[in-house]
């Protein structure tokens, strides 16, 4: 029986494939990684499609890099505004 990779192993493999380590990503870098606007990201978060943001302070949010890499590598073909290349 083939053992399926755990979500933590998948995340670690993605980080290694991109030559990265786990870290928090702020808005400007999130936009560069996902190519989604802030309003589209908020909409997808509400729908449970985009990874949830982490609140760091009163006016400060970030996302886990591995969450974003997993999101863009899932390649949801029906997702409008999603760069599938």
What does this entry look like structurally?
- By secondary structure, the chain is an alpha+beta fold.
- The protein has one domain.
- Helix content is 44%, strand content 13%.
- The protein contains 4 helices and 3 strands, in the order αβααββα.
- β2 and β3 form a beta hairpin.
- α1 (7-17) packs across α4 (65-73).
- The radius of gyration is 14 Å and the shape is globular.
- The protein starts with 6 loop residues before the first helix and ends in a 12-residue tail after the last helix.
- The model is unreliable at 76-85 (pLDDT under 50).
- This is Transcriptional regulator.
- Pfam families: Phage_AlpA.
- InterPro entries: AlpA (IPR010260).
Salient structural properties:
alpha+beta, 4 helices, 3 strands, globular
User: What value does the average pLDDT take?
Assistant: 86
| Helix and strand sequence | HEHHEEH
Radius of gyration: 14 Å
Number of strands: 3
Terminus-to-terminus distance: 33 Å
Query: Reading side by side through the largest sheet, how are the strands ordered?
Result: 1-3-2
Protein name: Transcriptional regulator
Organism: Aliidiomarina iranensis
Question: What's the gist of this structure?
Answer:
Pfam families: Phage_AlpA. InterPro entries: AlpA. This protein is α+β, with helices and mostly antiparallel strands and 85 residues long.
